[in-house]
Fold this sequence. Notes:
The protein is an alpha/beta fold. It has eight helices and eleven strands. It has helices at 51-62, 78-86, 101-115, 138-166, 198-218, 239-242, 247-254, 267-274, and strands at 8-9, 15-16, 42-46, 67-72, 91-95, 120-123, 171-175, 188-190, 193-195, 224-230, 285-288. Keywords: NADP, Oxidoreductase.
Amino acid sequence: MVHSNGDIPLTNGGVAATNGTKSTNGMPLASQSLNVTLKDKVIAITGANQGIGLALAEACLANAASRVYSLDIKDPGKEFLELQSKHPGALEHIKVDVTNQAEVESSLDAIVEATHRLDGLVANAGITAHKSALDFSQAEVERLWKINVMGTWNCATAAARMFLKLNTKGSIVMTASMASYGANKASMLIGSQTVPSTPYSATKAAIRSMAKTMAMEWADHSIRVNSVSPGFILTELSYHVRDAPDWDTKMKYWRGMPRLALPQELGGAYVYLLSDSASYTTGIDIPVAGSVGAW
Length: 295
């Protein structure tokens, strides 16, 4: 059966576009796989030389991405090089300062020049700091905002411009945080005071809001923008949770999963949002937090 708009139905009752490899109306292609996969896709991930970003690179490669680029200001470490050796020619590093818009744009140009495509970008690079709000200097707060918020802005807008240039239905995924929903109850204990890092939480709330607003603005171009809010993940940035002497007690009363997650446990959410299976998913946030914040 051919519909009046020239499209054909998918096997599950949906409607697929028929015009070759591109869909002019944003509908999925008839040839689109129903598997959650990144087959043939080129993905850029900021801050992927370590921690969550490196775990996301591993997840993308495990789900058949053809090439993953880490855009990171730091040099690759041992863990990155080990993963790179397992995927020869599929994992690359480009040195990028995400607060420098020109560097971000140049890195995406280099990716497209090498691969002739860009399918997704994960704006993941970020920093944290924990102390009383009254002890933060203006310069310290501005640094958090510059890296976390402006860095995400630079990467998302550069990716959107590239998607438009390539006529690609691209996906942008931002790393927010469960701290964007409210005060972090598992914050660092300094003396007798619990310190939730007010400026960090504010940057992550800004990122989550940015994703929703960009999703609405770019929906007409079939550019999807979503975010993921990790909970307590076992990385260097979670030292304030890992080292807290009252961690077990806090988790007992929260009724959350009484452990920190491995970074790889975030991979499924990001892979889904980057994949064609999420072709109608935009403007959402996926909490991956072991029930923390659910009640």
